[in-house]
Specification:
Structural class: mainly alpha
Number of helices: 7
Low-confidence stretches: 73-89
Order of helices and strands: HEEHHHHHH
Shape: rod-shaped
Largest sheet: 2 strands, antiparallel
Number of strands: 2
Mean pLDDT: 75
Strand order of the largest sheet: 1-2
Length: 177
């Protein structure tokens, strides 16, 4: 639920961004009121403490939403789309290197030169990490013809490397390379 609220779009931008802008605005107003009071000019009402409190509240909300989004980015590998905005901005160099060394020749631009009707982009094999791992370990089962894609054993691509590759593939980064 917090994810949906964090990324709720308002005029095309997520709520998270507007909370950050409000936090910055209240910090600047607090600073302005402090400078005005320091110069000896009295305001008609005392807002400095209220603006400081609002600044802290909005900064805490913004920080919490940001940290929650970062946690989702690191832990959400279900392909559910949660944290998608953050995933797009992260780089996965280990996954990219694995893709370039093992996959790119048959899957350029996210396609599939051996079986064009089964592209990498949007594949149900990327639904979750367990499905992906089972497929790369034994790609001929259950619905694919044997021999088109080689199986990658634990010694060729470890589980942790497979996770990096999976993160790269679901990150929606440039598979156009």
């Amino acid at each position: 639920m917090l994810t949906k609220l964090t990324y709720y779009p308002i005029f095309g931008l997520p709520l998270f961004m507007y909370i950050g802008i409000l936090a910055l605005f209240f910090v600047l107003l607090t600073t302005l009121f402090a400078l005005i009071n320091k110069k000896g000019k009295k305001l008609f009402f005392k807002l400095h403490h209220r603006m400081a409190a609002l600044s802290i509240v909005f900064a805490l909300i913004h920080g919490t939403m940001g940290m929650y989004g970062l946690i989702l980015t690191k832990t959400d590998m279900t392909g559910s789309g949660q944290g998608k905005e953050f995933r797009q901005n992260f780089s996965y160099p280990a996954g990219l290197k694995l893709f370039d060394n093992n996959c790119k020749s048959c899957h350029p631009k996210g396609g599939n030169i051996m079986a064009p009707d089964r592209p990498l982009r949007g594949s149900p094999k990327l639904a979750d990490f367990e499905t992906f791992l089972a497929f790369i370990r034994n790609p001929g089962m259950p619905d694919g013809p044997k021999g088109l894609m080689p199986a990658f054993s634990q010694t060729q691509i470890s589980d942790s490397q497979a996770r990096e590759l999976y993160r790269y593939l679901i990150s929606e980064q440039e598979l156009n390379q």
